[in-house]
């Protein structure tokens, strides 16, 4: 018999704790909406597995290890069967030292403790469950953010109504998947898999961004506080910016608009979901080595030349999306400095990550991918998977940085630029596809 249990805990940071997601330090000055850990545990004939979703920008391998140690100390033995993922909100706190900003140690301690409580309580809440599943190819709120330009190069976020745009570099995975967990005659939780970046709010207020607003809108539609776990699909090169309009799309109102838009799609799908009887629940884990890029001395020489050209005046100022696109001023300095540091700390080294796949018979697989994976990678995994539904969960089990296709590295866009802690090798996409399919 399939059992499921859910729990959640608030993980909203205190005022002043810096927010992660941009290149500038941003001590938060207040809260727009709370951040949560949401834990969903499944059990079938003694096989226990599940997903733990954090309203954070990313998770580190070190933090996941601490949480696993904490739940082991609490007597929970299925820690290695859990997918830990982040919703990638850019208005949540740091969980690791990054871009010169240090994570708050007290917050990290609270985060670990709350995760243990959520997982333990979700396990205690296990009850007989019926699953309903379905998907729709309808993602009107997502756009490929990398564009071929008239000069033959690719630019990320080139600016709205830019006359030099030729076409998007690639597609968008437009599948939205939904699982409804039904217990005691009602839907007790919803799991959604959506491909889009989670960076609409901007500013220095804490927010769960559109996944939080989507949950709120779903609850308003259904009339009770049903929890919604959002699993972010392969969206490393996808965001919500429609370059064909002048509309400002960086605001809390935009997060509400997108969240409400996805809520309509999700609640509409609830009417068409099909029962998914589960005879066999399984979980498999594969270890994958992801090398960092190797930086040549010539690249360091070029970075030093950029620093000399832009001057010390470029060390201050906000790094806007327009600046990221053009690489001007403080943005050029930032990436040049990062490349030099990357050469010292990361170049030629490697990291290990876990790929965790949760399998419901031959019908559904939820499978983790570390980092911000390009949408084409998810599409390839889905195409070659043996399961009817395969939903990649990115920012899962750690963060290796952006994972573009190998061909992207000669085209341009800031996703290919190495930064300390990111910068996986050029063949990482193929490594992830191969390892994931083998694990499935």
Helix fraction bin: 25-40%
Strand composition percent:
25-35%
Largest sheet: 5 strands, mixed
- The tally of domains stands at 2
Tell me what the structure shows.
The chain is α+β, with helices and mostly antiparallel strands and 440 residues long. It has two domains: 2-283 and 352-410 and 426-439, no CATH class; 294-345, no CATH class. 28% of the residues lie in helices and 28% in strands. It contains nine helices and 23 strands. It has helices at residues 61-73, 105-124, 209-222, 252-270, 297-310, 321-326, 329-345, 375-384, 428-439; strands spanning 2-10, 19-20, 36-44, 47-54, 82-86, 92-93, 127-128, 130-137, 143-144, 146-149, 154-156, 165-168, 175-183, 186-194, 228-232, 238-239, 274-275, 281-291, 350-360, 364-368, 372-373, 389-393, 402-403. The strands form seven sheets. The chain has a five-stranded mixed beta sheet with strand order 5-4-3-1-7, covered by helices on one side. A five-stranded mixed beta sheet has the order 15-14-13-8-17, covered by helices on one side. Strand 10 (146-149) and strand 11 (154-156) form a beta hairpin. The chain is globular.
């Amino acid at each position: 018999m399939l059992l499921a249990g859910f729990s959640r805990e608030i993980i909203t940071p205190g005022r002043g704790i810096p927010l992660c997601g941009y290149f500038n330090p941003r001590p938060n000055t207040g809260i727009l909406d709370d951040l949560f850990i949401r834990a969903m545990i499944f059990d079938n004939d003694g096989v226990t597995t599940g997903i733990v979703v954090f309203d954070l920008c990313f998770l580190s391998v070190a933090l996941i290890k601490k949480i696993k140690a904490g739940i082991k100390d609490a007597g929970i033995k299925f820690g290695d069967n859990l997918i830990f993922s982040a919703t990638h909100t850019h208005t949540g706190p740091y969980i690791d030292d990054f871009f010169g900003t240090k994570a708050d140690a007290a917050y990290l301690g609270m985060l670990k403790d709350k995760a243990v409580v959520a997982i333990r309580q979700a396990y205690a809440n296990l009850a007989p469950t019926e699953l309903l599943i379905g998907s729709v190819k309808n993602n009107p709120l997502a756009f490929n953010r990398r564009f071929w330009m008239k000069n033959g190069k690719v630019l990320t976020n080139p600016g709205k109504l830019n006359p030099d745009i030729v076409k998007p570099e690639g597609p968008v995975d437009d599948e939205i998947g939904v699982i409804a967990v039904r217990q005691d005659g009602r839907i007790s939780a919803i799991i959604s898999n959506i491909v889009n970046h989670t960076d609409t709010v901007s500013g220095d207020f804490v927010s769960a961004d559109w996944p939080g607003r989507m949950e709120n809108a779903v609850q308003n539609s259904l009339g009770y506080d049903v929890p919604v776990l959002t699993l972010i699909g392969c969206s490393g090169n996808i965001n919500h910016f429609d370059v064909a309009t002048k509309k400002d799309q960086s605001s809390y109102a935009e997060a509400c608009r997108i969240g409400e838009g996805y809520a309509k799609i999700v609640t509409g799908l609830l009417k068409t979901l099909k029962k998914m009887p589960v005879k066999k629940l399984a979980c498999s884990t594969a270890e994958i080595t992801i090398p960092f890029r190797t930086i040549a001395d010539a690249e360091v020489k070029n970075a030093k030349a950029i620093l000399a050209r832009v001057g010390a005046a470029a060390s201050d100022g906000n790094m806007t999306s327009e600046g990221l696109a053009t690489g001007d001023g403080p943005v050029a300095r930032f990436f040049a400095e990062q490349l030099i540091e990357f050469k010292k700390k990361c170049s030629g080294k490697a990291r290990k990550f876990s790929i965790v796949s949760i399998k419901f018979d031959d019908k559904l697989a939820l499978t983790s991918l570390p980092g911000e994976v390009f949408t084409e990678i998810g599409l390839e995994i889905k195409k070659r998977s043996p399961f009817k539904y395969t939903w990649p969960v990115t920012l899962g089990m750690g963060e290796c940085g952006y994972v573009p296709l190998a061909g992207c590295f000669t085209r341009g866009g800031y996703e290919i630029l190495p930064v300390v802690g990111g910068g996986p090798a050029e063949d990482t996409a193929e490594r992830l596809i191969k390892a994931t399919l083998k694990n499935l």
